[in-house]
Specification:
The complex is a heterodimer of chains A (216) and B (359).
Chain A: H1 5-39, H2 49-64, H3 67-73, H4 75-82, H5 88-112, H6 116-124, H7 129-160, H8 171-180, H9 185-214
Helix pairs in contact in A: 1-5, 1-7, 1-8, 2-5, 4-5, 5-7, 6-7, 7-9, 8-9
Chain B: E1 2-13, E2 16-28, E3 33-37, H1 44-51, E4 59-64, E5 67-68, H2 74-80, E6 84-87, H3 99-109, H4 114-128, H5 143-155, E7 161-165, H6 173-189, E8 193-198, H7 201-207, E9 210-215, E10 218-224, H8 225-230, H9 235-242, H10 251-259, E11 264-272, H11 280-287, E12 291-302, E13 305-315, H12 318-330, E14 334-338, E15 344-346
Parallel strand pairs in B: 3-8, 3-9, 6-7, 7-8
Antiparallel strand pairs in B: 1-2, 1-4, 4-5, 9-10, 11-13, 11-14, 12-13, 14-15
Helix pairs in contact in B: 3-4, 3-5, 4-5, 5-6, 11-12
Classes of the chains: A mainly alpha (216), B alpha/beta (359).
Organism (chain A): Cytobacillus purgationiresistens
Subcellular location (chain A): Cell membrane
Membrane topology (chain A): Multi-pass membrane protein
Chain lengths: 216, 359
Amino acid sequence: MEVSIELMIRALWETLYMVSISLFFGGVLGIFLGILLVVTRKGHILENKVIFSIVNPIVNIFRSIPFIILLVAIIPLTRLIVGTSIGTTAAIVPLVLHVGPYFSRLVENSLLEVDDGIIEAAQAMGAGPFQIIFRFLFPEALASLILSVTTATIGLIGATAMAGAIGGGGLGDVAITYGYQRFSTITIFITVVILVALVQVIQSLGNIFERRIRRV
Amino acid sequence: MIEFRNVSKVFKTGDKQIDALKDIDITVEKGDIFGVIGFSGAGKSTLIRTVNLLEKPSSGEVLIEGKNYTTIPEKKLREAKRNIGMIFQHFNLLNSKTVYDNVAMPLILAKMKKSDIHTRVKEILQFVGLSDKADNYPNELSGGQKQRVGIARALAPNPSILLCDEATSALDPQTTKSILELLKRVNQEYKITILIITHEMEVIKQVCNRVAVMEDGQLIESGSVFDIFAHPRTVTTRNFVRSVVRDEVPESVINLINLDRESSRIYKVEFFGTDSGQPVVSKTAKRFNVEINVLFGNITELQGIPFGNLIIQVIGAHREVEDAIQYIIEQNVEVKEVEADGSQHRVNDQSFVGNIVHG
């Protein structure tokens, strides 16, 4: 059986749906964890050994679980949150838990790139912790954060390929079920071309925004 | 006014303990431009950071206008910090924001009204001479312009104290000069007390009225800039002074001494203050039967007062020369005889006749 254009469009839509929704929630989670990882570390503005030594290993644990395992392992949690454990929406829960910790490390790196002198200047002018984070660290790290979002988004596209395991659909799922399992080389080829194009577009957009913010 | 009272700071890293500040006592009076000089690692950076509590003293206290900030709650402290501006060696400007937004930042943090912020930022940019750069980003500016933005940002909330952390160390001499001129204006026009830390004696010489010298976390000397330059008591201070006012005897002069010891002698005449305004040398030459050659000289100006030394060769009969030197000493000028090995001995009033006492 050959794949139809409708099938491809639907798969593309499913991929975009999963990527965008999980990017949003994963982004929020990642930014939150990333901030915690930065500000509670030793010598930083809200140094807190307890919080850091809890968040740091949790992020590591989630980052070390292969996504296909995570997908299946958290089925009860998925059912609790979205009411079902199969389908595109159900895939979003594990995707969020996958990309959140990953993104938190990228956010951590971006925020740590900001010169300590900026923080010192902020403290000297009487900025509180929230003001330092949102008025100094984030604006200064914005260009770098844009690249982090780009990297996280592309990582998510890769992860959605496995969502087929719980009936999530998407381009990756089509490639595996129609292409790989039914030996349809053309299907593999088309899905891969679409994925490559998608990644190229996202990376280019990321670079454009980053350059505009850095004003180079 | 800033008062450091027995301020000590200890840094502990592992089982190592570093005494960054040892029992520092300094009073910076209102209206001072007070300089703290020392080599890197002397503790001066730590010292300036205890003023706005970027570093908390381990013991002792720092009083700002009579108040101890360590005892007030965090929120009040942040408000109090608006009274203390700070500028940095590497400017520490937000590269993602325009000059205008950088200067406005402390006012935004203080939740000032937008229209008031606008007025204040315009006014202060005018003061530092950057009105036309309001919409530029820091990376479009030169080092000197960046520091001007730093100064504008520090002055925006109308502080009574300005802290300068090696503010000119990253700038070339010409730019340094213009920034120091600006700091002088800040001091005079806004009546802001300025505390400067630096490793450049030139900075102290150009703007400060009082100075403290630090070494290994300790205060080794302090006083008016003029006194410190005129009578440095420690080797470190003397070396700092020498970096601005050369006082060693040049080799060419030493060679001259070896040539003819009988009919001419060489003296170093040191001017501290208004004396150098007097034509001491020409007066002496007129009054006594001696010929005076100026071999080498180094006169500079400290707070409008001439300061420095002249190396002169006095040629004439032994008795005439000694009388001439005696006369110069009576004019309240310090005179040292330069020996063949380059050492200098103070020619003292009482012991002048016959022998020379080692100074």
